[in-house]
Amino acid sequence: MSTITETEVSKPARITGRVLSGIVIVFLLFDSAIKLVPLAVVTEGMDKMGYGSSETLARSLGIITIICTLLYSVPPTSILGAILLTGYLGGAIATHVRVGSPLFTHTLFGVYLGLMVWGGLYLRDGNLRALFPFRR
Which pTM was predicted? Predict the structure, then answer.
């Protein structure tokens, strides 16, 4: 049985990964905060997406997003957080596909954010690099 050993991460890669992850974390915490309040733009947007203008649902989604984002931001649980955020973003993508939102600006935004989640984590986490090595 072989074990996966952590690969070394260069300082520029680690800094780039932290910046990328930081951008995702700030964006998702802001998104969570406006869902917790919830602002009129949130309830109107949810109604437009077919979920009704339920403040309870908005708050629930805000809490879920905060939990997933906090798990992502803490190094020992960052991979679990990234997996949970991927599922959350997949639901957002599916919703945009269902209502026929514009492809590049709305529907694929979850893909862009997901790439930033995993890209930032890959650049800063040697364990993930060891698990998925890119070969030359």
Answer: 0.88
Say if CB 4 and CB 131 are below 8 A apart: yes
Can you say whether the dihedral through the CA atoms of 66, 14, 119, 75 is positive or negative? negative
Tokens of 98: 């269902």
- Please state the three-class secondary structure of the chain as a single string: CCCCCCCCCCHHHHHHHHHHHHHHHHHHHHHHHHHHCCCHHHHHHHHHCCCCCCHHHHHHHHHHHHHHHHHHHCHHHHHHHHHHHHHHHHHHHHHHHHHCCCHHHHHCHHHHHHHHHHHHHHHHCHHHHHHCCCCC
Record the tokens describing residue 56, joined without a space. Answer: 């309870």
Per-residue pLDDT for 4 more than 70? no
Residue 3's pLDDT is: 61
Tokens found for residue 10: 């260069």
Whether residue 1 has pLDDT greater than 70: no
Least Cα distance to 45 among 1, 2, 109 occurs for 109
